[in-house]
């Protein structure tokens, strides 16, 4: 992995908005950058973070706000190989080493809580049971397992009692995250996973109070957010959405259907006074503007295909307060210093994104050469 310069346009050194401090609930941030959540598939078989996780996150503590990789709140919540959990005492103990490393570097850790729902395969879970979902409709996606790619099976439809169990699992996971020393949690309601599946009419064919209408499809997301906020505080609870992102076989309908769903959802979530809304934006600028207007607190925004030169653009335009970084931060532990000094960036090694040991995880070079 060599240190190569990317093309440069307007220097981020002169972007005053990017370097302004910000208060995010109970934490103080020195600037507007953050670490985006990125799955790395390096957890241990029991769901504890891998032995290098504390080093990986600690290396990136200068980003200030670090949002962890997707972390399952229960055995049913696991979809992929080697992803971490946050629901057992062992998980709490292991995550504490990560939180301590982040805090030692001056950063703050939010653990992302993600239930995979139908985006799972029994071979990847501790109990090897069929995955669950809002309806018995397969994602029809290939899933990597220890024996090679396999198609996701038809999930078992959650009944209304089990939905309450899922809500309780998120509540317990949030409490466990705080017990591990995390500064908060991010509820993952995006990217084709369980909560996004409930929002999507092609994955949710229910005719009860959790399906059918815009309001009913949003119900589980709102109830989970309310439960988590009650458990650990709204000022430690963020949530991520990805309107119209067609991952996991989801199709949320035309632009007007997507706008109706997310304007309602965000309006209701705003009543809970959650500390932030994290939007993965894929192109509907009219919707983005309306969500910004609906949301009273911090808005984190990742715009698909964003370049280095565009990192501060949405903050400058008043559309966002914080710009989380994905692969830029993955390949550059000292990304904050590199952007401040207009320095060259390391390139990502695609072969080491998922699984493995230190290669492509904790061995990317810094400007200081370590």
From TrEMBL:
It comes from Pseudonocardia autotrophica (Amycolata autotrophica). This is N-ethylmaleimide reductase. InterPro entries: Aldolase_TIM, OxRdtase_FMN_N, Oye-like. GO terms for cellular component: cytosol. One of its GO terms (molecular function) is FMN binding. Belongs to the NADH:flavin oxidoreductase/NADH oxidase family. The keyword Secreted does not apply. The lineage of its organism: Bacteria, Bacillati, Actinomycetota, Actinomycetes, Pseudonocardiales. Gene3D superfamilies: Aldolase class I. It is an enzyme of class 1 (oxidoreductase). Residues 18-345 form the NADH:flavin oxidoreductase/NADH oxidase N-terminal domain. Its EC number is 1.-.-.-. Keywords: Oxidoreductase. The gene is nemA. It comes from the Bacteria. Its cofactor is FMN. Pfam families: Oxidored_FMN.
């Amino acid at each position: 992995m060599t240190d190569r310069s990317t093309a440069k346009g307007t220097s981020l050194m002169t972007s005053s908005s990017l370097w302004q401090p910000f208060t995010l609930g109970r934490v103080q941030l020195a600037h507007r950058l953050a670490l985006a959540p990125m799955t790395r598939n390096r957890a241990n078989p029991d769901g504890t973070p891998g032995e290098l996780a504390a080093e990986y996150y600690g290396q990136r503590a200068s980003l200030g706000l670090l949002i962890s990789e997707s972390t399952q709140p229960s055995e049913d919540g696991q979809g992929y190989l080697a992803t971490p959990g946050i629901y057992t005492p062992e998980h709490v103990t292991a995550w504490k080493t990560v939180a301590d490393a982040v805090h030692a570097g001056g950063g703050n850790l939010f653990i992302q809580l993600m239930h995979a729902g139908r985006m799972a395969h029994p071979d990847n879970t501790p109990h090897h049971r069929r995955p669950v979902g809002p309806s018995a409709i397969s994602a029809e996606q290939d899933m990597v397992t220890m024996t090679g790619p396999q198609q996701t099976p038809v999930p078992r439809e959650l009944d209304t009692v089990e939905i309450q169990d899922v809500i309780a699992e998120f509540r317990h996971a949030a409490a466990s995250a705080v017990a591990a020393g995390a500064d908060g949690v991010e509820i993952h309601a995006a990217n084709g996973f369980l909560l996004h599946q409930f929002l999507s009419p092609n994955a949710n064919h229910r005719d009860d109070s959790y399906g059918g209408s815009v309001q009913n499809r949003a119900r589980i997301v709102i109830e989970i957010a309310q439960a988590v906020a009650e458990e650990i505080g709204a000022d430690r609870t963020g949530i991520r959405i990805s309107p119209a992102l067609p991952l996991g076989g989801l199709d949320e309908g035309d632009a007007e259907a997507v706008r109706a769903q997310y304007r309602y959802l965000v309006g209701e979530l705003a009543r809970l006074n959650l500390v932030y809304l994290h939007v993965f934006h894929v192109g509907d600028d009219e919707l983005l503007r309306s969500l910004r207007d609906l949301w009273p607190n911090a808005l984190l925004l990742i715009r698909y295909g964003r370049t280095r030169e565009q990192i501060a653009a949405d903050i400058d335009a008043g559309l966002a307060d914080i710009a989380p970084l994905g692969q830029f931060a993955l390949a550059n532990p000292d990304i904050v210093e590199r952007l401040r000094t207009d320095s060259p960036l390391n390139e990502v090694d695609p072969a080491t994104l998922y699984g493995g040991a230190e290669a492509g995880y904790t061995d990317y070079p810094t400007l200081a050469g370590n």
